[in-house]
Design a protein that fits this description.
- By secondary structure, the protein is α+β, with helices and mostly antiparallel strands.
- The chain has a single domain, classed as 2,3-Dihydroxybiphenyl 1,2-Dioxygenase, domain 1 (Roll).
- It contains 6 helices and 15 strands.
Length: about 300
Amino acid sequence: MESKLGHVTLRVPAHQWTATYAFYKGCGMVDGLSKMDARTSIMIFPEAKASCGIEWIQLASTNCKPVANDRAGVYWKIGYSVHDVNQAVEDVNRLKLLPIAIGKASQFENVGWLTHFSDPAGYIIEILGTTFETSEEQRKSLIANAKQQSAPAPAPAPAINGIGQITLRVSDKARALAFYTDVLGMKLICVESVSKYGFFLFFLAYTEESPPNQDLEHVDNREWCYQRPYTTLELQWNSSSDGPTALSGANLPPDQAGFDSFTVFASRSLRAKLGAACEFVKDPDGTLIYVKDAT
């Protein structure tokens, strides 16, 4: 088995557990555990085999501190991959999966066709199109192919392909890229310079594929990157910032909701490189990454 991103682990206050679980279920995700623990759930898109999942940990305390979404955190968001962003937004609003309607999507620079919102626990979700807003013919073709290859949804749900990205913030792009490529064995497949706003985006994945243009910053690689069936790790580096400073993972207080960690399913070759006894590693910014064997 090849290596892959397994799941991102997020902590949820007990009073937000039911609403959070219901929201993701309404988006088409199912509980991937054979026996659901009362305080743990790993939710997946059943048809998206290469997509990572989301592990939810319910905090026991009734006085939990809420999710703090600020630019000081290492964790930013997950990205839902969709072909038609407007239709996905319409579906979420029609199904009333959230108490407040999601706002209209738009094309952001030459980065992507997208919108952002918060789930019931306060975590940021990005709905990102597999094409730019103006790429109508390519989008029609992708939608037609998806209908031919996918089984009909068992219940009304937004047409979400899977989790396209897990997005983290990093303080030093060189150190972060060296860690994720040299230590964790990922491949850099796309680089996006958003100079107007002072940041770069780096997309890494467990794949042997190469982008259509050898220049990783070329705009042609972006839609290709968003159309990959596997989840990519997106690293945001801000040239005018010192990087993330907020606590996360093992450093979080036990009563604090927030990003905990993510898990990598390691191939035999990656396991051999990391060592048989390796259970976790930390990236240069302290992000906790659990290592489990791919099966």
